[in-house]
User: Fold these one by one.
Assistant:
Number 1:
Amino acid sequence: MAITLLAMSTTRLMILGLVRWLQPVHGYLVRRELESWNVEEWAAIAPGSIYHALRKLAQEGMLEEVGTEQVDARPARTSYLVTAAGEQEFQELLRRYWWDYKAPVDPFQVAFSLIWAMPENEAAAALRHRAARLRTIAGGFTAMLASEFMQATKPVHVGWMFELSVGRAELEADWCERTADRIEAGELRAEWGPAGLDERSEAMRVLRAQRERDGQSRPIEE
């Protein structure tokens, strides 16, 4: 539920921000602009959700419909402006996500925590495959940064966001390769899988006793 609410909030922030920047603007232009930023990859905003978000924000009074445009046989396009309530919502969400930090939720980390359930050679191979994919993604962002399209049509800060994506992808790719090397070198402690429950319980007991001797009252959670 928390992840869903976060995704909804970031979508609201992005849509309000784009309408505010381009207003009056219709949904097609908002979608086209966001797709050119590759928001589906780094903001988890699906193109199909943009029109729904526009309609919902209008229903909530955050946006105002200011006209409908009909071009040839294409569907009618409704243009929007940000209302006073929408401006307040935008400013609150903008400050929240500028000043707060929320760690990204990555399903890979859940799977990695269960590494003992996979053969070591498969785990190492999967990590190297992930590293290769991440480097491909980083290469795509780097190529986009150097393109005439980006330099001629996008605000400079969009390029900075792409630089962040490149840095994150390359950093994780390096980690994947180092971790694969560790697994292949036999550093993975298989006894810390299900068979090692007794050993872990004993380790926790020793640590708890050590903390008590040192006068540290904060408990160690098992």
Number 2:
Amino acid sequence: MSLPDFYRHVPRLRVRDPLADFLGAADAGVLEYGYEDAVRLAGHSCPTVASAYVLGCQALAALYPGELPERGGVRIDFAERLDAGVTGVIASVLTLLTGAAQQGGFKGIGGAFVRRELQQFEVALPLSLRFTRIDSGAAVDAAADLSRVPAHPDTSVLLGACLRGEADADARRRFGELWQQRVARILIEHWGDQAVFRVQAA
């Protein structure tokens, strides 16, 4: 399977999952995720998937300074409804990274390792998201402003042509290239850009 080369240059996330440790799924429960895992989950690579990946990584780093984040140890609140805009896509990517799930998530074993209902929606928040450690109550608020990473001017024209069935193979290829170039800028050039990705103590 061939994936864009820039995926290899995106920072990766290492976490410790007590459930994975308990069930012998990974040595010491340590798991590693890359952007390509979020792409496989979503089935596509776009600014939304990219921003969810970045915010998840940065929020976990802020909550667990100097240690591996605990997958399954964080609750996530969303300002929007689950079915509003791209909230569902963001929620799915964050489930991958944090283990926090909705009603259909893992119900646990003997009261331990519960992952369901660790995502709540339509919560009054100052930003789009809040990540809270279950053990300590420490929390960070987070949001992304992707308008600060605009698309190439040709992208919308090519998108329209593709959707109308008017684009030839070269135009479709060019559209895909421009689309992924923006994703690459979001993930690599703007990873540490606080004007694009805001993570602050709650």
